Amino acid sequence: MLSLFVVPLLLINLGMATSPWLLFLLYFIGGLGMAGIGMGIMHDAIHGSYSRNKTLNRYMGYTMNLVGASSAVWRIQHNVLHHTYPNITGSDDDINAPFFLRFSPNAKRYALHRFQFIYAWFFYSISTISWVTTKDFVRMNRYRKMGFLNKRNEFQREISILILWKLVYYTFALVLPLIVVPLAPWIIILAFISMHLVTGFLISTIFQVAHIMPSLEFPMPDENNTVAGDWAMHQMATTTNFAPRGALFSWLIGGLNYQVEHHLLPNICHVHYKSLSRIVAETAKEFGMPYHSQKTFGSAIWNHIKMLRSLGKTVPVSI
Fold first, then answer.
1. 15/114 Cα distance (integer angstroms)
2. Strands, E, within the chain: which ranges?
3. How far is Cα 147 from Cα 314, in angstroms, rounded to an integer?
4. pLDDT grade for 218, boundaries at 50, 70 and 90
5. From CA 237, how far away is CA 114, in angstroms rounded?
6. Rg, the chain, Cα only
7. What angle do CA 244, 245, 249 make, to 5 degrees?
8. What are the residues facing 242 on neighbouring strands?
């Protein structure tokens, strides 16, 4: 996955993309590699499950920075907020969407949400463009106000690191190609954007179908700010697997088709999830716990579309 990202960008920066079709092809392959890094390398590494070696996990987690995003922001957004509060509106940052998207029946509904099952895919595709431009800065500032990054000079240090990594990313991903590639600048910029469209579509779709589904729950805390049930039950009620028999597919997406096992055991490397899934499924059946799974990725996408459409029609359960 690292090679799928690094090699095409290296060839581009060596001036070997002398035609538009070759440039777009190399950026397209780079987009696949970028998605692979996000799903199969940095995701495990930042969870501390890529390796038993903490130092190796830390350095492999920097691959998130290598593709233009922030490992520090991801650690808070994903590890802390999403994994602790999946599908809880206001707490799970994966469903705290901008006003034009509605990912929870507890979120406010607007008239335009009726069409989100059509236009959501465009915003999925441009999601990583948001990451490499403004999103990391906005969220880092918001997380500081929430009480994160509050150690001595931690926020200032992370902002400096964020800016430095983004300068590195833009230098090799866009600036150098604009200098060395013998093509019109607008073609190069368009090819760069196309790389992100590939990555954004793949990553957003994989992550969203695991939680925004008709069969899953969207619990809310009571007047004492307490969510009913225990932690494990909550994870299983708000998460679904998909395409569990697709071995190659599972490898390509870093085992994220085993979301139930990942949410129960995020500190375990994804290569073990297939074996663990048998144990988890049997245990869930034994104790009458929910165990959601879609047979194919296609059925998962279809049900996700139905959920987006349903959310565009239904009024909020609570606001």
1. 46
2. 240-242, 292-294
3. 34
4. very high
5. 26
6. 20
7. 85
8. 294
